[in-house]
Automatic annotation (TrEMBL):
Residues 420-464 form the Alpha-D-phosphohexomutase C-terminal domain. It comes from the Bacteria. It comes from Aliivibrio fischeri (Vibrio fischeri). Residues 2-138, 162-262, 267-378 form the Alpha-D-phosphohexomutase alpha/beta/alpha domain. SUPFAM superfamilies: Phosphoglucomutase, C-terminal domain, Phosphoglucomutase, first 3 domains. InterPro entries: A-D-PHexomutase_a/b/a-I, A-D-PHexomutase_a/b/a-I/II/III, A-D-PHexomutase_a/b/a-II, A-D-PHexomutase_a/b/a-III, A-D-PHexomutase_C, A-D-PHexomutase_C_sf, Alpha-D-phosphohexomutase_SF. GO terms for molecular function: metal ion binding; phosphopentomutase activity. Keywords: Isomerase, Magnesium, Metal-binding, Phosphoprotein. Belongs to the phosphohexose mutase family. Its cofactor is Mg(2+). This is Phosphoglucomutase/phosphomannomutase family protein. One of its GO terms (biological process) is carbohydrate metabolic process.
């Protein structure tokens, strides 16, 4: 059964991620475009470096083209943000990228984007699922890829330069040129290197790259930038004199940052750094949007500058929608995705990394110094994270415990309120919080806790984790 979660459709290669199912998704989306009479707007397709991604991109294109929709096909692996950028540039109503983002190597999938280059919302993904439910393979139209190219139904494009130029035009490239920074990039065998390295070399940075090359197994690691997976980046930055280490996930929409001392900067801190920098140093104005599992220190930074902080459910589509509604300055999530007003409406690890390099160039301060400045003003908060795995048969019992019976541990901290908008989130009167929610992409129960220090946050996290363990 093909189901779309917060990050699109993801499935095991060879089990659910198959040629037949990829074509079903493509036919369903084609039907929607025809029904909405937007097939004349064209369709952008891109793919990442995962096993079968290039072939699956062609399978998808063959179906869309056979339905009379002009396809703009990016024939080299690219960051997902480039597909979103090109969707916006071409005025397409729909587009897709073959990727499973940061999932393990044996997954692949499809991300669908809508007008403006945003993640498809639930209304669209439900339409796709409903279409698929009524389709068989006999309903799928398809052309041979080369035949469709020859007939002009598929156009080969390469928007890399335009995307890179858009970032260079956005950031303060002249300040970066003067800073003479040393930068180490870890694309985690994903797709970020070409775009990010080009931006930074334009800024006269001394750039080195590790973990690049063709490796569908991602070197045996999850292609998700974290303190654990970026251990080599941490070591090299600390011992070889780099100003910053930049890690990006499999499709380059998320980032993980290492400071000049070799310390991992949590994505929460990255978001705080950039929002604070834009308000305090650049004098920009605007609210911030965070998801329900992201640090509340953003609320303090916003309030101190007379701005609002909006909380939305997990899924970047909710962030981009709220940003559009309030013309927010920045939006992001604790998993490492963010964007800025004026750029694309989806998360972009290449752009966010470039902006961080601008920040340390303009301020003349090291990453650790910028964080110290922020914590001196707003206080410290630590976010602890943990996952509970469960078997499919156990999900109903967990769901009932959380949502129906609404059971909670006996916390020693006074509770202000509990929200069930997206998972179960407990807000404590001391400003801390803990949330448990089902992952939209994997069979996991994700738990986050933010408190005034690491021991307290981990204590609250473990209490929730133990309570929900089956």
């Amino acid at each position: 059964m093909i189901q779309f979660g917060t990050g699109g459709w993801r499935a095991f290669i060879g089990e659910e991620f198959t040629k037949d199912n990829v074509r079903l998704v493509a036919q369903a989306l084609s039907n929607i475009m025809i029904n909405e009479q937007v097939q004349d707007k064209g369709f952008v397709i891109g793919f990442d470096r995962r096993f079968l991604s290039d072939k699956a991109g062609k399978w998808f294109a063959e179906v869309v083209a056979a339905n009379g929709i002009k396809v703009s096909f990016i024939d080299k692996f690219v960051p997902t943000p480039i597909v979103m950028f090109q969707t916006k540039e071409m005025g397409c109503i729909y587009s897709a990228c073959i990727t499973a983002s940061h999932n393990p190597a044996d997954y692949n999938g499809v991300k669908v984007f809508i007008e403006g280059g945003r993640d498809a919302d639930e209304i669209i993904t439900q339409k796709i699922e409903q279409q698929i439910a009524h389709l068989t393979q006999q309903d799928v139209n398809a052309l041979e890829f080369e035949e469709a190219v020859t007939a002009g139904k598929i156009e080969i494009i390469n928007p890399m330069n335009a995307f890179v130029d858009s970032i260079i035009d956005f950031i303060d490239i002249e300040s970066i040129k003067k800073a003479n920074l040393r930068v180490l990039i870890d694309p985690m065998f994903g797709v970020a290197k070409n775009a990010l390295q080009t931006v930074l070399i334009n800024g006269r940075c001394d750039v080195d790259v590790i973990n690049d090359g063709e490796n569908p197994a991602f070197g045996g690691l999850m292609p998700s930038p974290s303190a654990a997976t970026l251990y080599r980046l941490k070591h090299l930055v600390a011992h070889e004199g780099y100003d910053i280490g930049i890690g990006t996930d499999g499709d380059a929409d998320r980032l993980g940052i290492i400071d000049e001392k070799g310390n991992f900067i949590h994505p929460n801190e990255v978001l705080i750094l950039l929002y604070y920098y834009l308000l305090e140093y650049k004098g920009w104005k605007g609210s911030v949007v965070r998801n329900i599992a992201t640090t509340h220190l953003l609320d303090k930074v916003a309030a101190d500058h007379g701005e609002k902080c909006f909380e939305v459910p997990v899924g970047f589509k909710h962030i981009s929608s709220q940003m559009e509604a309030d013309d927010s300055l920045i939006g992001g999530e604790s998993s490492g995705g963010l964007t800025i007003r004026g750029h694309i409406k989806g998360k972009d690890g290449v752009f966010a990394s470039s902006l961080l390099v601008e920040m340390i160039s303009v301020t003349g301060k090291k990453l650790s110094e910028m964080l110290d400045e922020i914590y001196a003003k707003y206080g410290y908060a630590y976010t602890a994270e943990g996952d509970c795995t469960f078997k499919p048969a156990e999900k109903e019992a967990l769901y009932n415990k959380i949502y129906v019976e609404k059971q909670l541990p006996e916390f020693e901290y006074e509770i202000e309120k509990v929200s069930y908008e997206d998972g179960a989130k407990v807000y404590f009167k001391n400003g801390g919080w803990v949330i448990a929610r089902f992952s939209g992409t994997e069979p996991l129960l994700r738990i986050f806790a933010e408190m005034e220090d690491k021991p307290t946050a981990e204590k609250v996290l473990n209490e929730m984790k133990a309570f929900l363990s089956l």
